[in-house]
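lol forgot to send this yesterday, sorry. struct tokens for the thing we talked abt
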């Protein structure tokens, strides 16, 4: 069984790297079809099932979906170990079923797992909790499975840019670090140092509390109009956090998704009108 899991992870890495819409570390989506945008999942299997049901990719061949931050949260084993890697494996299977239409972008919990750095959630160090659960399930193969997951997470793109000038990433650089962000990271090969502070990959996954001045600067740098981010917790599932920014979350009972057309331009207000509560999906 562990070798089957490792083979699956390797297939996921290959699918991430060969996504036909990927250019460097950026997914470029065309001006046709539709797009489902989701926020952090953090192991919430029921919401993933709702998202997949709503997207219905099998019957909508021109539809794309963006997922992010699958790990750290959700069910635990009998000793409190984090089982979110099981959902990650199912998301890989989903990607393999629709390799050029399921796009999984890198989040800060991903970079923390890759780098084996501590990351806290609800008072628990999540990397340790997940590693212990994998060790219990996979025994002596636990380290091999962990390595495969780290490599899979590292293969994820950093962001998605739509032809309609909507930008999706886990976050954006915080105000204090915006001048340290190098947009060239989007078009070159990713390095481990990029996702360690203050690397540009790190800045693109860890930033919080963005000022309008910074958002306008990033919009000009990236040549986009509006941003959709995750990362920052949202009790009601979403918030308007600037003239051109929406933050969404998909990891709790008030979570949501966005359903938009790739052939249409959007203001933030129009994006808000496109929000779908996950609880409304049977």
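and heres what i got for the seq, position by position
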């Amino acid at each position: 069984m562990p070798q089957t899991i490792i083979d699956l992870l390797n297939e996921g890495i290959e699918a991430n790297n060969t996504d036909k819409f990927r250019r460097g570390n950026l997914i470029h989506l065309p001006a046709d079809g539709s797009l489902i945008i989701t926020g952090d999942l953090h192991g919430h299997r029921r919401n993933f099932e709702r998202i997949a049901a709503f997207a219905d990719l099998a019957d909508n061949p021109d539809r794309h979906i963006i997922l992010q931050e699958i790990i750290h949260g959700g069910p635990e084993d009998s000793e409190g170990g984090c089982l979110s890697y099981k959902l990650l494996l199912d998301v890989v299977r989903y990607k393999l079923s629709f390799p050029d239409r399921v796009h999984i972008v890198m989040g800060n919990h991903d970079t923390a797992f890759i780098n084996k750095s501590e990351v806290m959630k609800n008072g628990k160090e999540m990397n340790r909790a997940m590693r212990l659960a994998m060790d219990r399930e996979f025994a002596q193969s636990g380290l091999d499975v962990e390595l495969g997951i780290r490599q899979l997470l590292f293969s994820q793109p950093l962001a998605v840019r739509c032809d309609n000038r909507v930008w999706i990433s886990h976050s954006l650089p915080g105000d204090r670090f915006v001048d340290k962000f190098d947009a060239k990271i989007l078009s070159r090969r990713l390095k481990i140092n990029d996702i360690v502070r203050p690397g540009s990959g790190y800045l693109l996954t860890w930033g919080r509390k963005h000022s309008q001045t910074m958002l306008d600067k990033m919009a000009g740098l990236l040549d986009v109009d509006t941003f959709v981010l995750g990362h920052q917790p949202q009790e009601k599932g979403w918030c308007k956090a600037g003239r051109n920014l929406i933050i969404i979350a998909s990891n709790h009972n008030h979570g949501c998704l966005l359903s938009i057309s790739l052939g249409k331009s959007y203001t933030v207000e129009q994006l808000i009108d496109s929000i779908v509560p996950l609880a409304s999906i049977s």
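The CA atoms of residues 258 and 275 lie 5 Å apart. anyway ping me if u want another try
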